[in-house]
Amino acid sequence: MVSSLEVAGPESKPLEQKFESNIVIDGEQSEEENDSPIEEVRLTVPITDDPSQPVLTFRTWFLGIISCMVLAFVNQFFGYRSNQLMVSSVVAQIVTLPVGKLMATTLPTRKFRLPGTNWSGSLNPGPFNMKEHVLITIFASTGAGGAYATSIITIVKAFYHRNLNPTAAMLLLQTTQLLGYGWAGMFRKFLVDSPYMWWPSNLVQVSLFRFVFSTSHNTIFVLVIYNLCFVYLFRALHEKEEKCEGKQTRLRFFLIVFFVSFAYYIVPGYMFPSISSLSFVCWIWTRSVTAQQIGSGLHGLGIGSFGLDWSTVAGFLGSPLAVPFFAIANFFGGFIVYFYIILPIFYWTNAYEAKKFPFYTSQTFDHTGQQFNTTRILNQKTFDINLPAYESYSKLYLSVMFALIYGLSFGTLTATISHVALFDGKFIWGMWKKATLTTKDKFGDVHTRLMKKNYKEVPQWWFVSVLIVSFALAIYACEGFGKQLQLPWWGLLLACAIAFTFTLPIGVILATTNQQMGLNVITELIIGYLYPGKPLANVAFKTYGYMSMSQALYFVGDFKLGHYMKIPPRSMFLVQLVATLVSSTVCFGTTWWLLSSIENICNKDKLPISSPWTCPGDEVFYNASIIWGIIGPGRMFTSKGVYPGMNWFFLIGLLAPVPVWFFARKFPEKKWIKKIHIPLIFSATTAMPVAKAVHYWSWGFVGVVFNYYIFRRYKAWWARHNYILSAALDAGTAIMGVLIYFALQNNHINFPDWWGSENTDHCPLAACPTEKGIVIKGCPVF
């Protein structure tokens, strides 16, 4: 699936303008062309197939499962650290190709028979082929995606300090990941078989694999999203290349950067953690709260702050080297407008009593400026809200930064709907009509005909069986085990109904425009009104409603990739199913192990100041469970609460794309207008408050340098090395980070304490309130 930075292509011009000349309006194609009606697909996807190629080989299972397990573990492991790092499936793609080819040359070719069966096979059925590599990549990307429900386990054990049955937790993870198979099976006829549901993001992967296994040097000219970078990456690693005088080969460049990144990360990861966020303003004005609020990269505006750590650059926002300047400009522009115009105005005018609370935090507070004491309003036996205690205590307050982020999330939802309707509505409607017509034809385009001719379809009962079993286990997880998850059976049914309702329309948008709307805000809002006071019911409902839809589209997208690459559908189904089970199991094991073995994990007040185990993402998830679950939107965003004004963002988001659309139509020659992408601008805050100012500045600076300055001035170098650099930095940093923990920190071998060993930016006053009379430990009283 696409990330928050992948919601648009290189330009936000209406898709019907971009492609109307490429589509056969009457749905017919000549016998001579015998290809897809979408020009991008015709340019990218071959219309040939070799059904004799082995697919589910020993190499596929071995390398696929190992890749899935390693990426699931590494990403889950880093998710608990102050500077997260997301290792993508590209690293596994890089490693598995030469390993696969090595296995093809070394493993024995002798066939053997499984005792007691008629099944026979070989560890080495022939040359390592493209279809094997595609399935290994599916394994790896599933592992890299992680499991959203691990955050529920974390907040229960580390924040609420309650017991959770491990079987219930395991079932929660598995069922939230697997329910989407049911919707995928129901809608694959529309979203996979139809040639008009073309899934732009998959064309990049198709190009990539063709480049990997091709000796030709043809170039695909028309691609609509920035992932084109990976084409260069795989060409660099796998095409034969002569070393030019004075130039490194790209493979050697990758290895050099990998080892430098690997060696360097011991500095920010072990010896000098403070180098991850350097805030010079705080060092100059050591006694000024305002100066530290302005200068702190972790708790303030971050003016002048930066980090010398790749995980600071890429840990929260992804690698900036893989993002085009168009997306960087929109995303970083949204950050600038929010963070340096809107937020300071709200804070320094004391809107919503902002000065009572820290400038940059996701924590919750009471009316006195102290951290909100949830134990005072929770019935510990039933684990729900005690209304008389709440009414006698305090309304829930947020930092104005956090409140505005929720407002902007409302605006992002409606801005996406409005933007898609205005810019892409006509195109999507046309594609939908064509899809419903072509599905009546059992052949569809040439790719569908090849798949139907050469391979057996996945029986519908396979999908239905997974859905029934997953739903039954989900009911058991929610209603059994003393109802620890709090979600009643009707809540699970409603969550599934929401996911089912939205899967097809959002799938059509994603399959034609590469834009996806999330359901997390909608689901939190719905269950927050229907079932307030239940924190775990809220997050469980959100996870079932949001993730089953998201997983369904992930599965369908992979099926479309297999459709283009001519992977047998049954093989694709088995790989997806096994990869999902393996990934969620590894994520569960890693989560349970870390929560059980690291003392005071996620508890900043009790952790050593140098500890990286601060769980920034899960802290936000925990506070969301308080806001939407315990208190509920009815007591937060209506007249009963403090923040009813945030509801205006629904209207603001809905109207914001209109001027851009109007001026783009009125002045078509002004191409820069078409590049203003309102949903992307609104979504700039989605990484907050987990990501801080130093992360945005470091990410933006590196992105502009490489994808604007170097791209324009040194385009040959950029094309040759840019994406190799990104993958090598990711891999080296991740491997050293894991090695440091297991070899040193896990054995209590700590670096000597000194000023730089503190996992902070040395701006302690930045987290202080500035309202008169508010008393906070360690802060001056104004």
Overview of this protein structure:
It contains 31 helices and eight strands. By secondary structure, it is an all-alpha fold. The chain has a domain of 458 residues. The strands form four sheets. Strands 1-2 form a two-stranded antiparallel ribbon. A hairpin with a 4-residue loop joins strand 6 and strand 7. The protein is globular. It starts with 14 loop residues before the first helix and ends in a 39-residue tail after the last helix. The N terminus is likely disordered. Pfam families: OPT.
Topology:
Elements: H1 15-19, H2 39-44, H3 58-78, H4 89-106, E1 111-113, E2 120-122, H5 130-145, H6 150-159, H7 166-178, H8 180-193, H9 200-212, H10 229-238, H11 250-264, H12 266-271, E3 278-279, H13 280-284, H14 289-295, E4 305-306, H15 310-314, H16 325-348, E5 364-365, E6 378-379, E7 384-385, H17 387-393, E8 397-398, H18 400-438, H19 446-454, H20 460-479, H21 489-513, H22 520-530, H23 535-565, H24 569-597, H25 616-631, H26 648-655, H27 657-666, H28 671-674, H29 678-682, H30 693-713, H31 715-743
Antiparallel strand pairs: 1-2, 3-4, 5-8, 6-7
Helix pairs in contact: 3-4, 3-5, 3-24, 4-5, 4-10, 5-24, 6-24, 6-25, 7-20, 7-23, 7-24, 8-20, 8-21, 8-23, 9-10, 9-23, 10-31, 11-31, 16-30, 18-21, 18-26, 21-23, 22-23, 23-24, 23-25, 30-31
